[in-house]
Amino acid sequence: MNSNHHLFRSLKTMKIKNLCFESIKAQCKERGLDPLNIPSYKKTLTKQELKIKQSQHAKLLKVVIHFFEKFMLSMQGVPVLTATTDEEGYVIQLLGDQAIKETITQLGIREGVQFTEEYNGISSVNLALKYNQPIEVIGSQHYHHVLHASACYSVPITDQIEGRTVGTITFMTAVDQGSPLLLTLLLTMKDSIERELQLLKQNEKLHIINQLIMDTTRNGMMISDRTGKVIGFNDSAERITGWKREKVLFHHIHELENFGSYLMNVLEEKRQYTDLETPFKREDGRVLTVLFDALPIFDEEQNLMGAFAQIRDITRRKKTEQLLLNAEKLAAVGQMAASVAHEIRNPLTTIRGFIQLVKGDFQKESHFDLILDEIDRINLIVSEFLILSKPNVVHFHDKNVTQILKETIALFQAQASMNNTQIAVDYENSDFIINCDENQLKQVFINLFKNSMEAMPYGGELTIRVRKKSEKEVVIQIMDKGEGMKLDQIQKLGTPFYTTKETGTGLGYMIIKRIIEQHKGTLNIESEVNKGTTVEIILPLIF
Ligand code: ADP
Ligand code: MG
């Protein structure tokens, strides 16, 4: 309310209900209401009931006090009383000029009374509620004569979010002090009050949502202000870290073991961390694996407000994964046992035959070469088989990926031949050195070969190709001409236990993905139903 211009504009835009007071008065008379009486009230709340209503409208009342005080400054001494009512016309707050208050108290108007059309004839409160519009009732427009000395202005207050009326506010003054400006003032106040209520409600909602998230999530959450002081630390953070909230709150983040230095980077360099997997040693000695995310928080103007971090305890998941990894491996080993045994028996038969043959004739060297070859082959198969069935201890070394493939194929060959699958290889003539865990990669290849073989139940060709992808990468392609997959099938790959096979585990791809991820590689799958599938593994080269 700082310029006349503003007042003028508000006056022009407001709508006041054009009422015919004479006809309302006639209706009052018909109902037998005596204009010479002091108005009475249909109902007056007990102290207890009033308290309840006041607390239900606590926010409205607080906001009204705030704005009324502010607006009174621009009233330049005009004595005004303001009444706040709820949506049923109960007066729940009276503020302002003491003299007016005393006068109206004599007329029975005080906190707790209910304004009704039935008892009060013409009151701005009832009319504002009835028409949901700003209303003025000046002097003799009132039905009751005792009110002819007053000017009353009321506006309904609407909850803008829910779109319903929550009450009214009224200005009351002596009739000779009345002015249309008062109604304008009231309208401006209404706008401010509604806006403030809306903001409060939205903030409250946000706050509730925040609390809800903070309290119910299983993720540990930590929040710091811009200076690095911890201002939020939820239950799950307590549970995961074992730190007591009181011990952490209002301390500086650099005191937080493990996470402190990351959070400092977030604040100082505005860095972000996502899915950082890190071990966390609790004070009770337990070592957890946690996933850690952290990011800076900015306000609307992009000023740094603080840092947010969340931690997830994935120790269990890690353990399960490890178990599954082993289970799948054992399943693969088990399935291969039959064909491996067969493969071992074959050379043994050969050896046996030759030894029988050469029993009397130890001169034939070529026979010995054959025997030695076969023994070597047994050795290779058995040792590969043993490597594969060893428990998982991850060791990364620099290895030639083609060599790993060759060894894996040698191991797989037996099973392939039994299934009438021909393996064609196409290696680019170069050393592709990658940093890897050899056994894990072998597991990937075995799983992929098996899938291809199983996709060609009547046999077929399995092509394995190794190429340089770029200066930094090698690509391994495994191609079959099997039954192929539809897009939604491809998308499901890697979901544990997704299988279309009667004896499948549905774990193969989960393990493949996991291992390729650990090798910082990428997996591409292309497939067409009844045409075949090409799986591409891209791995970073060492140079
Ligand atoms: P499993 O082999 O135990 O079923 P996988 O995770 O290895 O589990 O594979 C999941 C599913 O994906 C298979 O059941 C199959 O339907 C499909 N699949 C995988 N590889 C191929 C392939 N090369 N050709 C066709 N379908 C495949
Ligand atoms: Mg499989």
UniProtKB/TrEMBL annotation:
PROSITE patterns: HIS_KIN (PS50109), PAC (PS50113), PAS (PS50112). Residues 213-249 form the PAS domain. InterPro entries: GAF-like_dom_sf, HATPase_C_sf, HATPase_dom, His_kinase_dom, HisK_dim/P_dom, HisK_dim/P_sf, PAC, PAS. Its EC number is 2.7.13.3. It comes from the Bacteria. The keyword S-adenosyl-L-methionine does not apply. Pfam families: HATPase_c, HisKA, PAS. Gene3D superfamilies: 1.10.287.130, 3.30.450.40, Histidine kinase-like ATPase, C-terminal domain (3.30.565.10), PAS domain (3.30.450.20). It catalyses: ATP + protein L-histidine = ADP + protein N-phospho-L-histidine. One of its GO terms (biological process) is regulation of DNA-templated transcription. Keywords: ATP-binding, Kinase, Nucleotide-binding, Phosphoprotein, Transferase, Two-component regulatory system. The keyword Transmembrane does not apply. One of its GO terms (molecular function) is phosphorelay sensor kinase activity. SMART domains: HATPase_c, HisKA, PAC, PAS. Residues 274-326 form the PAC domain. This is histidine kinase. It comes from Bacillus aerolatus.
